[in-house]
Amino acid sequence: MVTSQEQALVALKSAGFRITPQRRDVVELLTSKKRRFTVQEIHSRLKQKHSGLSIDTVYRTLATLVELGIVAELNLRGDASIYEYQGTDDHHHHHAICMRCGKAICLEECPVPAAFEKSLKKIHFQALNHSFEVYGYCRECQSR
Ligand SMILES: [Zn+2]
Ligand SMILES: [Zn+2]
Ligand SMILES: [Zn+2]
Questions:
Q1: What is the pLDDT of residues 67-88, one digit of tens each?
Q2: 113 C-alpha vs ligand 3 centroid, how far in Å?
Q3: How many angstroms does the Cα of residue 88 sit away from the middle of ligand 3?
Q4: Separation of 72 CA from ligand 2 center, angstroms?
Q5: How far is the CA of 108 from the centre of ligand 1 (A)?
Q6: What is the number of domains present in the chain?
Q7: Main-chain dihedrals φ then ψ at residue 84, nearest 5 degrees
Q8: How much is the pLDDT for 12?
Q9: Which of 15, 40, 50, 97 has the highest Cβ tally under 10 A?
């Protein structure tokens, strides 16, 4: 079994990125538990190990992971962005986002049909990432 962490690192590498100790640890943190982190949380956890780690480096690492679709950036209303491991190619997930309270609910299915993948192949497009979010109101907010 390939772990989520290994999968994410392979995806980083195949996109041409070097696996620096900092990148490895950001990935490790995000894939270790099913949890959501803010940039500040990631930074404060990792700076114990990497004393010179700047918050900028964490931002840039996360931006790369988001670009590759490995990590989802969830903008919860009025709060800092929250980062969550989303999975790589074969196994990733999407979100339903509440427009009132900003809650992002994980949905395990990917709605991209096989026909769409075929169309991409036809135009020789190397797809790295796609995004799909559903916006609406969560259960609690509907009854408010
Ligand atoms: Zn809501
Ligand atoms: Zn999620
Ligand atoms: Zn998908």
A1: 888 888 887 666 678 899 887 6
A2: 9
A3: 9
A4: 7
A5: 19
A6: 1
A7: -140, 140
A8: 86
A9: 97
What's the whole-model pTM score? 0.75
Domain that holds residue 17: 4-142
For 37-46, write each residue's pLDDT tens digit. 999 999 999 9
| Single-letter amino acid, residue 71 | V
Q: How far apart are CA 51 and CA 58, in angstroms?
A: 13
Q: Which ligand is closest to the CA of 136, given by its number? A: 1
User: SS3 of 109, please?
Assistant: coil
Q: How far apart are the first and last CA of the chain?
A: 45
* 105 CA from centroid of ligand 1 (Å): 10
Report the separation in Å between the CA atom of 66 and the middle of ligand 3, taken as the mean of its atom positions.
14
Given a contact cutoff of 8 angstroms between Cβ atoms, the answer to whether 117 and 89 are in contact is no
CA of 32 to the centre of ligand 1 (A): 27
Average pLDDT over the chain, rounded to whole? 87
CATH code at 8? Answer: 1.10.10.10
Centroid of ligand 1 to alpha carbon of 112 (angstroms)? 26
Model pLDDT, residue 6: 86
